[in-house]
Amino acid sequence: MWYVDDPVSLVKPPKRKKVKENEKKNLSKSINRSTDTLPRSKHILNAQVAIRSACCKKWFDCAECHHEQESHALMKTTEMVFACKKCKKCFRKDSTEFEESDEYCPHCDNHFVLEAVTPKPALQVEGEDARIDNRMLKDDRVRGHQERSIFNVRDAEDRLG
Question: Which of 69, 40, 41, 36 minimizes the C-alpha distance to 55?
């Protein structure tokens, strides 16, 4: 005779409801919206991680961004919480035990300790895309008129003698 210790194991699990394509798209859009809320810094252009401040529990790319947006001072702690902008996963690092291997995201190995690229003011002329309208580009093949004399040949018509 055959005995069953657990009668629940004989019960079939309920069938899963098939997810429609539209529901999948809506679900992926809502996930992307929640992960796209990581801030973008105007001070550091190549920020690879967002840092969570311990004082107000908000995400910032740099201390200057926190100073601009919040009225209180930034609280300093040894443990920092990072959110990788590449894989959108969070991790903690202790700054007292920071090693060379801690410069990489533990999930995707993205190198997040980089030399900061800061924006520099520049005066530029904006034009159309060079592939569409290339009149703004300088053609290095065309040389200008080079005079090799101390006398201007063009002014010779106006001179007497």
Answer: 69
Q: Rounded to an integer, what distance in angstroms lies between the CA atom of residue 115 and that of residue 104?
A: 14
Reported as a single tens digit per residue, the pLDDT across 41-96 is 788 888 889 989 999 999 998 888 888 889 999 898 999 899 998 999 999 999 88
Please give the model's pTM, rounded to 2 decimal places: 0.51
The DSSP annotation for 9-51 comes to GGSPPPPPPPPPHHHHHHHHHHHHHHHTTS---SS-TT--EEE
- Among candidates 92, 45, 79, which has minimal Cα distance to 64? 45
- Residue matched to tokens 């908000």: 58
Beta bridge partners of 51: 60, 82
**94 pairs with which residues across the strands?**
79
